[in-house]
Design brief:
The complex is a heterodimer of chains A (about 325) and B (about 150). Chain A contains ten helices and no strands. Chain A is globular, with a radius of gyration of 20 Å. The longest helix of chain A is centred in the N-terminal third of the chain and has 33 residues, at about 5-35. Chain A is about 65% helix and about 0% strand. Chain A has one domain (about 5-330). Chain B has about 150 residues and is an alpha+beta fold. Helix content of chain B is about 30%, strand content about 15%. Chain B has helices at about 1-25, 65-70, 105-110, 135-145, and strands at about 50, 75-80, 90-100, 115-120, 135. Chain B has a three-stranded antiparallel beta sheet with strand order 2-3-5. In chain B, strands 1-4 form a two-stranded antiparallel ribbon. In chain B, a hairpin with an 8-residue loop joins β2 (about 75-80) and β3. Classes of the chains: A mainly alpha (about 325), B alpha+beta (about 150). The interface of A and B includes residues 38, 39, 41, 44 and 292 of A.
Chain lengths: ~325, ~150
Amino acid sequence: MSLTLLNVIIAVVVAIAFAALNAAYLVWAERRGAARIQRRPGPNINGPFGLLQPPLDGIKLMAKQLIIPGGVDKILFIVAPVLAMFPAIMSFVTIPFSDTIVAKSMDVGILMIFAFASMGGMSLLFAGWSSRNKYAMMSSIRAVSQAVAYEIPMLITTITVVMIAGSMNLMEIVHQQSASILHWNIFPLLGNSHNLLMPFSFLIFFICTLAETNRAPFDLGEAESELVAGFHTEYGSMGFGLFFMGEYANIVIGSCMTTILFLGGWSCPFGLFPGVWWFLLKLYILIATFIWIRWTFPRTTIYGLLNLSWKILIPLSLLNLLITAGLIKVF
Amino acid sequence: MVSYFSDIYNGFISLLIGMGVTFKEFFKPTVTVQYPYETLTMTAKYRGHVELIENDEGKANCVACGLCARACPSGCITVAGEKPEGAKKKVLTKYILDFTKCSLCGSCVESCNFNALEFSKEYNLASTRKEDFIFDLLQRLEERNK
C-alpha cells in the first residue's frame, strides 16, 4: 500500500475510531462480563442490553470540568493522559489485520510497537509524579517497576518468535505461520523450530501482556483499596477518560500482538473462510480471557508480582530462547 | 529445584481451577432483583402495618369492639363505631393507625376475635412528612375495593 496523504488520513481516522470504539465497548463488555460472573445483570438501563452506556459515560466525562489541582506540575499533568492514549493509537498503524488491512507494514513493526508500549509506562510516571499526591506517586513507582520487570520476559519471548520467523515484520511473522494450524507459534509441530515448549512462551507472553497493561491481578498501579485510585487519583473529566481508554486500547494492542505472534494472525486453522474475521475472533477471545481473568483472581502483592517476573518468567523465557535457538540450528 | 517447578505447576493448576469456577458462574442465571422494576413477593410471615380484613360484601369484618386499641402498647390505634338503627352489630366508622408509633408487635392482630386484622405486605413506605404515616385503614379498604 503506497503512503499517500489520503491513505495516511484514512488510516489515522480508522485507527482512532477502532481504538476508541474498542475502548468504549470493552468497558461495556467488562462490566457486563463482571456482572455475569457475579450473577448480576450489569448495566442494562441505557438502551438495549445497556449498549448506550459507553457513549453516555463519554458525554458525562466530557461535560465535566477539567480540574487541575494547585501545586501540580501543569505541563506534565496535562501531557500524561495524552501520552497514555497516543502510543496505543500509534501502534495500530503497523498492526496488520489481514493481508490487505494494514496502514503501514514496517520491517521493524515489533520494535515500533514495543517502543510505543514502553512510553505507556512513562505516562504513568508523569501522571503520578506531577500530581503532587503521595498515593499517585507511590502508585506510579509501582507501575514503573512492574512495567520494567515485565518488559524483559515479554521482549525475550518476542525475540524467540522473531528468531523462528526470521523477521521483525508482523506481516512476515503471520505469513510464516499461515500454512496450517500446526505452524502457529503456540504449538509449532511443523514449521522450522519444532519447539514443544512454545505453549509456555505463549503463556509467558500472555501474563506479561496482563502485567504490562496494568490489568488485574497485576493492577497494583491503581490498587484502589490502598492507593485511592493510583496514578489517576487527581484526574477527573476527560483526563481520567483518556487513561481509561488508553488502558483498554493497550489491552487490544496486547491481544493483537499475542494473536499475531502466537496464534497465526488472520490465518484460519483449517483453511476455512479465510479473512479478517479469524483475526478478530482470536483477538476477542483473548480479550474475553482478559476480562475473565480480571474477575477471577484477587490482586497480587507487589512482592509476588516482582517475584513472578524475576524468579519465574525471566528464567523460563531465557531457557526457551536458548532451546529455540538450538532447535533452529539443528533443523 | 523440584519444589520450584512443583510450585509453579500447583500454582498454575489452582489458577485454572479458579477460572473454572468463574466460567461456570458466568452461565448461571442472574439472581439480582431489579428492585424498582421487579419486586419479590413477601413471605407469609412478613409483618407490614396492619390492615383490615374484608368480608364477602366488601365491608370490614371489624365490629369496632376496640380490643385492638386496648391491646396496643403504644396506643397507635383509634377505633370508632356506631350501631345503625335496627342492626345487631356495631359498624366501624373510623380506624386510624398511627404507624409512626407502631413497633409491629402484633398484639392487635392477636387480640382480635373477629378475624378483622392482618399484617399487610406493604414495605415501600417512605416519606418526608410524618402525616403520611397516619393511615386511615377504613379508607384504604374502600380504595382497595374500588
